[in-house]
Design a protein that fits this description.
This is Alpha-(1,6)-fucosyltransferase. By secondary structure, this protein is of the alpha/beta class. The chain has 2 domains: 149 residues; 151 residues, 3-Layer(aba) Sandwich (Rossmann fold), CATH 3.40.50.11350. The strands form 3 sheets. Strands 9-8-7-10-11-12 form a 6-stranded mixed sheet, with helices on both faces. It has a 4-stranded parallel sheet with strand order 2-1-5-4, with helices on one face. The protein starts with 50 loop residues before the first helix and ends in an 11-residue tail after the last helix.
Length: 378
């Protein structure tokens, strides 16, 4: 179920791009990618504008304040309940990171469901590694998945000193709601972390992801193996989320038709999905192209006994999608997050109800409302 939410981005586009999307909503104003004729062979010059990368590196966590206690994002076997998919977890990490800043606490990540995080991601600029031996034993656990987060979100708006809301030295929080809107409404937010109001929504995720994470050795090894299978200069990618087993099969033929317009002498094609039938359909429809997929188990990383293998495949897929010269996404949090972390809207396309159209990473929340899980407070 998708929940309509307030707009988080600050768009300055003036001209109109004509078209419509789900629920009769008009497409966002002009997108910052070239609109190419569908009947032409596509040739993307390998000169991606690294707009997000060129921005000054943000110090996301204040370095100059006294901290006491810990806020720990929790997705561990120590506590029961689901964590959600990759975008759920990143939304939860963003929110608990912000809570740690506001409450003047250290931020850590406790993730071993379905397996240890550091098998796939390593600390980059901030050490989020959870070491039980360094953390006091008295702790609380807050299960804030879905609407269970409402009370804390209300409190974050009404309470200046949020640190008083946590009674123990360590608070483990499991949540999947993005609290960006709530943080932005705090009157003194500029004193805590000004970047949450200065950056566009996509760049918040781009910056925080690269501030916290870099690919681990296992992911880099598998990514290198994929690169060895490359035969051409450019890489076109598609992420097509089908849904959990038992869901009605989805038709992604618009994506395969779109990709079939590419010049096969210049492009390799990478297909990522959560279901094998989708990858098979793409490979069959793109006969004559060099199509690459990540070897491994597909599915839901939160469900089943093979979740660790699914997480491994997902992390390699995600890392690959963020490096593509051309990217096609669908109505999926995983898709949206890959477009954010990719860092550019150049040659970014979205699948609609009956077509594939150019889109901007700064307006994905209007195109696919609700996927980053930040509903309005009722």
């Amino acid at each position: 179920m998708y929940i309509q939410r307030e707009s988080l981005f600050m768009s300055t586009h003036e001209n109109l791009h004509q078209g419509y999307i789900k629920n009769g909503k008009k497409l966002p104003d002009v997108v910052d990618v070239p609109i190419l004729p569908l009947n032409d062979k596509r040739d993307v010059v390998k000169e991606r504008s690294r707009t997000a990368e060129d921005r000054a590196v943000q110090e996301f966590f204040p370095e100059d304040r006294t901290l006491s206690g810990y806020i720990v994002y929790d997705c561990s076997t120590q506590h029961s309940g689901l964590c959600g998919g990759w975008s759920d977890r990143m939304s939860g990490i963003l929110s608990t990171f912000g809570i740690a800043i506001i409450s003047r606490r250290h931020f850590k990540i406790n993730h071993d469901k379905p397996c240890a995080f550091d098998n796939f991601l390593e600390p980059n600029r901030y050490n989020w590694t959870f070491d039980k031996s360094e953390i006091p034993t008295n702790s609380d656990y807050m299960y804030l998945i879905d609407n269970n987060s409402k009370n804390l979100r209300v409190l974050s708006l009404k309470t200046k000193h949020l640190e008083n809301a946590f009674k123990t030295n360590v608070t483990f929080i499991r949540m999947n709601w993005d609290m960006t809107l709530d943080f932005r409404k705090r009157p003194d937010i500029a004193e805590d972390f000004p970047w949450v109001t200065k950056l566009q929504y996509a760049d918040i995720y781009y910056g925080l992801y690269h501030y916290l994470f870099k690919p681990g050795k296992t992911v880099l090894h598998e990514f290198a193996n994929l690169q060895k299978r490359r035969k051409h200069e450019l890489l076109a990618c598609a992420h097509a989320r089908a849904g959990d087993p038992g869901s009605k099969r989805r038709d992604f033929s618009y994506i395969w038709k779109f990709l079939s317009k590419l010049d096969r002498s210049k492009y390799d094609i990478f297909i990522a999905s959560d279901q094998q039938y989708v990858r098979d359909a793409g490979i069959d429809s793109l006969e004559g192209y060099d199509v690459i997929t990540t070897p491994g188990v597909l599915g839901n990383m939160d469900i089943g006994s093979v979740g660790c293998d699914v997480l491994m495949t997902g992390m390699v897929d995600f890392n690959t999608l963020t490096t593509c010269d051309l990217l096609v996404i669908t109505d999926s949090g995983f898709s949206i997050l890959s477009a954010y972390v990719r860092g550019t809207s150049d040659n970014l396309y979205c699948m609609g109800d009956n077509d594939v159209f150019p889109c901007s990473r700064n307006t994905l929340e209007d195109i696919y409302p609700g996927n980053m899980l930040a509903p309005r407070l009722q």
